[in-house]
Amino acid sequence: MAVVPTVQSDFQVEAAWTPAEIAELGESVSRAPSVHNSRPWTLTLHHRTAVLRENPAPLMNHDPQGRDRRISVGAALMNLVLGVRGLGWSAQVEVGATSDLVSAVVHAANPAELSPREAAWARAIPQRHSHREPFTGRPVSEPLREKIWDAASGTRCGGRWINSDAEAVAVARMLGSAANAFHANSDYTRELTGWVTPEGRRLQTESGGLRGLAAVGLTAMTTHLPDEHRLARLLREESVLLVGTRGDRAADHVRAGRAVERAWLEATSTGLSVSMMTQPLHLPEIRTGLAERLGTSMIPQVIMRFGYAAES
Ligand SMILES: Cc1cc2nc3c(=O)[nH]c(=O)nc-3n(C[C@H](O)[C@H](O)[C@H](O)COP(=O)(O)O)c2cc1C
């Protein structure tokens, strides 16, 4: 089947959807969060079907197993589903994996109304962004935390809040040790220093200025790492959610990405600011250590922080 490329390199089109629908779906997908904003996917549209395929990516030291790529595809898939739903269709999703690369097919099978919750998530897509700066001290209310937790919950995946001082201390110790390991790994930091995209360079500059919890999720050569006491305090002051999955295969990473995007959009729709990190969770000992200390059988895939941004 011939594929006609358009001006966007991550976006290919093959007939049937109207041009306005194509533009809308492409826009929704391109606004998803992705590792280093690399958008490691290709979107192909034909008839009433949308196919999202993972692209191989070059971040060998940062993401050797492709976990982040697949989580990124999951987040983009969530936006694609919301886009299809927003056009008035039901969205049947099939996720598959071949030669280590995942792909997802979304069938717009039948006309179907958007639910109010989906509509709120869809409206939040253009507003969603990473907020890595510290939050104001205003706590996130319990009902809101409940809504975010609920949004992250799905088949074989879900969220786990960091709840107590003891948990914060244990998690701070793990995140601190992961950040120190990355800091000391010259191959790793060299790769980050060589970030080739303008966004990668922006992130690298930003990592040098980070002082809060986000610094342990964007550790490069110049990052100032907070000590463990401060990390533990921040983990208590901010609302921190671990998103995990029951399994650790390609489809689980896609599930984690969908869960993250739902939680992020839910939070954005209620005026909260968010950032996420996976960097510490690339180390298998941190994944198992966190699961053990938090007494969860889920495999930690993403750490998300929620709070209120200072008024600018
Ligand atoms: C799989 C994945 C991993 C990410 N890992 C990190 C991370 O470890 N630290 C961080 O600060 N941001 C991380 N991000 C956030 C991206 O850097 C961010 O989404 C991207 O730069 C686009 O910016 P935006 O979220 O403001 O649209 C990650 C995003 C994804 C989807």
From TrEMBL:
Highest rank taxon of the organism: Bacteria
Nitroreductase domain span: 127-308
Positions in coiled-coil regions: none
Pfam family, one: Nitroreductase
Name of the protein described by the UniProt record: Nitroreductase family protein
